[in-house]
Amino acid sequence: MRILYITLGCAKNEVDTDRMRALLSAGGFKEAHQVDEADIALVNTCSFLESATTESIETTLMLANEASRGVRSVPIVMCGCVPSRYAEGLAEELPEVAAFVRHDEEDGIVGVVRRVLGLEAPSGAPPTVLRTIEGPSAYLKISEGCDRFCSFCAIPYIRGRYRSRTLDELLEEARALLAGGVRELVLIGQDTGIWGTDIASDLTLADLLRAMDGLAQPYHAWIRVLYLQPEGMTDELIAAIRDLTCVLPYIDIPIQHCSARVLKAMNRSGSASALRELFERLRAEIPGMVLRTTAMAGFPGETDEEADELASFLRDEGFDYCSVFSFSAEEGTRAAQLDGQIPDDVKLERTQRLIDIAERQGFSATASHIGEVCDVIIDGVEQTGSGFELIGHTWFQAPDSDGVVHIEEGDASVGDIVSVELVDSFCYEMIGRIVEVRE
């Protein structure tokens, strides 16, 4: 039996799909890459924003229509955020779906798939599996859920309260990934900076990084941390990022806004002065670091002056990368009920202004690396009009988030680490020339 996997949304969903793939593979199922090859399709959905929910449902319906025209009937299993957020009434609204699987039910995916296909239930204990990752970079989810309850965000209602994975469990998974050829571990979670605090009062993310660093050193692998909140940047964590051999000086801190009043309405803390102080300190403590952030335009009640303040803040701070989002009134969140909802045309104008600032700064930051010689992990090969080129990324480019390095000449394989001279840039992309290929 073959399964077609479709993943929508963020890197955390990629991890969840991979774990289900590993469980199903251990249960005897193969992977299909086209709907007409599949016996069943698994769609892992996103529901962080209304637009993501719409995309998830439309993708599912398109798949159902495509399958109905195929040689065989392909039942669909919908997993992840949409079933977790909208459990009530989904079966009636989406009769095309054979089964719905919430986040907390995904470890039972083998039984669900066998039931949908009319196969006998699996016997014995479930297999012990970790991942099926192929490729040089792997996301490693260190926690689930969130306790922040930002007024605009539905994540706590979709994924539940914050739960750290144990140190032993994470080290076991990291060890297997590294032994399997992974050259970069990307640590993710909704709030990575507070990892461990729900397990033990003296356990911190810095402890995890030190343990991971010991595992990664023999492989010369990289460790990257995403989704750090401002409050999580402790002295201990800053020192760990600065001093550990394998941890990259790449810091991802979503700020959302800089106005103290708007942040309070978002149920977040901070102010422009506090954030400036934090970023000044980080740049002083970790020279040459790369800084990524996220900003939101058009939060309810945001005045013209506060929108200007955020634009000026982004312009002054000069982030290497900045993702910009328009506020979305998500069902069930407090912000959706606030007075002062911003008209769509105003939100669009404010969003575009922030995007223009982010791109000018990001393109300039990318170009500033021209002339450097640095290590690049080869991620793949692409065909161009003039032949084939190697595609990779370097330490200041997070996989799937930032630009890549294009290498038009030279021989290397996926997973190789090559020394590359960066000779040009365009937008967030870089062009490189191989200096040396390392084992």
What does this structure look like?
By secondary structure, the chain is of the alpha/beta class. The chain has three domains: 115 residues, Rossmann fold, CATH 3.40.50; 231 residues, tm_1862 like domain (pyruvate-formate lyase- activating enzyme, Alpha-Beta Horseshoe); 66 residues, Nucleic acid-binding proteins (OB fold (Dihydrolipoamide Acetyltransferase, E2P), Beta Barrel). It is built from 13 helices and 18 strands. The chain has a six-stranded parallel sheet. Helix 9 links the parallel strand 10 and strand 11. The radius of gyration is 23 Å and the shape is globular. It starts with a strand and ends with a strand. The model has no long low-confidence stretch (mean pLDDT 92).
Write the layout of secondary structure elements.
Blueprint: E1 2-7, H1 11-26, E2 30-32, E3 40-45, H2 50-68, E4 76-80, H3 81-85, H4 90-93, E5 97-101, H5 109-116, E6 137-141, E7 143-144, H6 155-159, E8 163-164, H7 167-179, E9 184-188, H8 205-216, E10 222-225, H9 235-243, E11 247-252, H10 260-265, H11 272-285, E12 290-297, H12 304-317, E13 321-326, H13 344-367, E14 373-384, E15 387-394, E16 405-407, E17 417-426, E18 429-438
Parallel strand pairs: 1-2, 1-3, 3-4, 4-5, 6-9, 9-10, 10-11, 11-12, 12-13, 16-18
Antiparallel strand pairs: 7-8, 14-15, 14-17, 15-16, 17-18
Helix pairs in contact: 7-8, 8-9, 12-13
